[in-house]
Amino acid sequence: MKKLLTLCVGSLLLAGVTVANAGVVVIVSADSSVDYLEKADVSDIFLAKKSSFPGGASAVPVDQTESSADRETFHELVTGMSGRQLQSYFSRLVFSGKGEPPKEVEGAEVVSLVASDPSLIGYVDSSLVDDSVKVVLTP
Amino acid sequence: MKLNKLVLASFAFTIVCSVEAAELGESITFRSFGSVAAVHSDTDQADFYNAIAISPEGPGRTESVSWNSGSKFAGQVDWTISDRFSATAQTLVKQYEDGEWGPRMEWAYVKYNASNELDIRVGRIRPPVYMLSDFLDVNFANPWVRPPTEQYYNIPVTNMDGIDFLWRPDFAGFSWLVQPYYGEKDLDTTTEGEYVGIENFGLNLSASKGDFTYRFGYWDADLEMEIASFKQASAGLQQICLGFGDPVACEQYELLNLQDINYRFLSAGLTWDQGDYFVQSEFGRAISNSTTVADSTAYYVTGGMRLNLWTPFLSYSNFDNRMSSNITESMIPTVNSIALGVLAANAQSQSTVSAGVRYDILPTVSLKAQWDHSMTSDCSGNARTCRGMFGRSTDAFKATEQDVNLISIAVDFIF
Asked: What is the pLDDT, as a whole number, of residue B362?
């Protein structure tokens, strides 16, 4: 009985992990020298606090358009901001010349765009990842 | 005259940029922000002055409800010239301190991106005296209808012609912004031929990590005043001092030194924003080498929460004039009237409790309602006024400590 319970809880946990992993992953070009990023690094890059990767190479974030469900998930997990909070946040930077919000593209375009330029960093649903990009963070 | 030139320049810039926008495509962006606000005060004995120095009028004695106090509109053009260079111009339409409505050029600079960590800006920029200096007018970016008056009232320098450096190093696990700046500014006054010239430099330092942002500021300004009434007062005191040998006039003349005024503002700030809850606070200490501009302490604490589209908040702010309100009074009334006038102008201690709520109607439009309860103090000493930061006050208002309620409704937007 106890074994069965452990098994059940175990599979539940596993299911939970699987669901989380099936979500959003952060990607850079396969040509990039970056292999791994901390969540804080990714957050800083997407919030225009930083414009380089930890090694010093130029970093340019690519966000998804507002209609994307991945956008909400990504920001909830990484920057910790809702869409409304992001609007307020970037209005502070934009009207004082301290930063610009990231360029926005459709979810389907992220992989090909990021693959084309080692300075770009984006996020997509993990099912869209192919050889042209590498995953640097699974938030 | 100067104003007209600026307006012309800003319009010319806007038109040139609009025309080129079609050709240059994505390299030019036009954006705007603004507020429409109605502010009501429950006293008819004094006007509420909006943050930033001497307002021409306000709700209270002049009118029961003021639309001028918080309404404004700004347009900004950003032009990406090359990978390294960009130019930005922002004009603001609001009722300025001298009573005129803009537009006036608030920002107009060229930015050079020297490296991934460093930007250099030259032109008209805002000295980051306060934590929120950058977006002082962008009410959409803040929870309140206006930044706390007690903290933000004190230093009326919203822009300067100069240079700043935006350096963003990574150090000790924090993301830093190190921003030294230098510039000059002539403040507008209501009288032709008068001016207050300011030469200032400073450092804005901020470090963020996770939900916390820490901020430190140092501002150092040399003031050169060309104000007829001040000059007259100073000359009068000097004359009485030298001519009649009145020691009090001599003492007061020394005290009210109107030349070589140096004014410094030290500040510290903290923001904690966890998403559902946030707290922000600033503390500032102003130090001057002259009695003409008072030493003071100011702080505020604001806390709020986000409930989907609603952001209710509570705030407490305090301004304490640290200037001695006691001087030796002379036997000669003229001598006293000058010195007491200066003392009274600086006696502005007050505190405010605020409660309000922001509602996000659209992703780019918010509606706010706010109640402020202000309490004036500092009636002791020779200054003999309890007006706090209120203006155009009656003698009855100045005579005793006051409680004033303000109700503000505002729509803020960005496009």
From this structure: 92
